[in-house]
Hints:
Strand order of the largest sheet: 1-2-3-10-11-12
Largest sheet: 6 strands, mixed
Low-confidence stretches: none
Helix content: 25-40%
Strand content: 15-25%
Radius of gyration: 27 Å
Oligomer: single chain
Order of helices and strands: HHHEEEHHEEEHEEEHEHEEHHEEHHHEE
Number of strands: 16
Number of helices: 13
Amino acid sequence: xxxxxxxxxxxxxxxxxxxxGEAVDKLAERLNRAGKDRVAAMWxxxxxxxxxxxxxLQNEVALASQRRPDILFKxxxxxxxxxxxxxxxxxxxxxxxxxxxxQLIEAAKNKLKLPIGGLDLRVRSKxxxxxxxxxxxxxxxxxxxxxxxxxQTIVPQLREQMTAGKYPLRISIDDDDVGLDITIDPTKSPYxxxxxxxxxxxxxxxxxxxxxxxxxxxxxxxxxxxITGVIVGDGDCVSLSSRSANWDRVSTEQIVAEFFRxxxxxxxxxxxxxxxxxxxxxxxxxxxxxxxxxxFVREGCGVQPELTSLFQEMIKHFPTPAMMPVNxxxxxxxxxxxxxxxxxxxxxxxNVVRLGLREFTEIFAGLRSLxxxxxxxxEAARKLPQEPNHLQAVVLRNLMEGRLPESIEVIxxxxxxxxxxxxxxxxxxxxxxxxxx
Length: 437
């Protein structure tokens, strides 16, 4: 996800002293369940934890309407009631299932004994005009018919060209419903490429994922006594980010303004995301990621300075982002854990080596070897040409010289890391495994 698991665990532990234990258990359960809601639970956790450091926090207190917003917060004269949610483009992705089609074609290639990758997939698009504006739609089969489309339309053409020895393989489909150009060049394995129009850029103020997320929470806040707001975390939503600068897009400010116009029950909107920047010259150091917040307050609501101060203080208690929302949302859909320092190592001289503790333990358990080079999907990686592993060569050389480890030390990191290190120091030549001298 966007934040490291160790950082999230500490915050779960700390809010147990503030909120009801059952509520925290439910939050942990949501964080452990792969899927879209995992990102929303992550944002809810860091917001609740951050606010708990700034004043008196209660969770899911029933209003007169019997609705239970996520936050009841008090500090001085400020009484704030808010709901936390996440906005994502998942619905748009389902309507434009490029990823699923790409995966199905790759699976079909595998059955045809074609090497991994070498696929170039180009998808055409159309613009649909409505009374509210224009939206872009990819020319793809419906999501529920993709498997049938690949097996009955794509695979027979690939098989026919393979039988005739026509390489690269090429398929072009251009009709009212589907527009595709597929090229498969086995010589370009294991790399693939793609191209398609951006379909997730918001072009209608009240028909986009951010507006939908705000609208869904506005109902919860009707009749609340105090300053009311919706806090929206970025779950991979272009409407919240600056990833697109299309001239015809509607801005985040326009979307929020339209929301305020239609829903008088909400006084403020806080949008949470992550910014990424690079500094220095080639070779570039790792990117710097920072938490980012944008506060919008309804005109005439006189608490903007107080809210600004509060949320600035709250964000100081957020973890350091480990990845951008687009990648965090993808990882949140996976059951497995993120890799640690897999594939990373360092050496000091010829007798001291350091590698990730998790990779070391997996090697010790027989799940992988150094030659796997830290790959996440080990079986798939072993089908590709193997790169030599320098660390393995150093360990093997020490062994062949008769040197065994004289010390193994675990070097701990902090909560902003997914792994620790293990340092192995090889000793003098041991006559137990070397010629006597």
